[in-house]
Specification:
Largest sheet: none
Oligomer: single chain
Radius of gyration: 14 Å
Helix content: over 70%
Shape: elongated
Distance between the termini: 42 Å
Strand content: under 5%
Number of helices: 3
Number of strands: 0
């Protein structure tokens, strides 16, 4: 179960990272919020990976960090979609 979760997380992190790299490139005029959100997300990924490495037989120990990482990813996606802070329906 932990191996499957780790593989799934690695796949999600890779896909999300690729999406963000492409999306951020088109947002040069409003780069600061996007860069900040990306850096927050990247830090959360690093923290989660460190936890998984430290607890290879107990992925549940990192569950809160996993949720934080997913929340940071959602914030990053939203920032890319609306980098000036407007609603996505603007």
């Amino acid at each position: 179960m932990a191996t499957m979760r780790t593989l799934w997380t690695a796949a999600v992190v890779t896909a999300v990272g690729a999406f963000f790299v492409c999306g951020a490139a088109g947002q040069q005029q409003t780069q600061s919020p996007v860069v900040t959100a990306r850096e927050d997300y990247e830090r959360s990924v690093a923290t989660y990976r460190q936890c998984i490495a430290a607890n290879p037989n107990n992925a549940n120990a990192c569950e809160e960090l996993h949720h934080i990482m997913n929340a940071k990813a959602a914030i990053y996606i939203q920032t890319i979609r609306t980098p000036t802070g407007g609603s996505k329906h603007d």
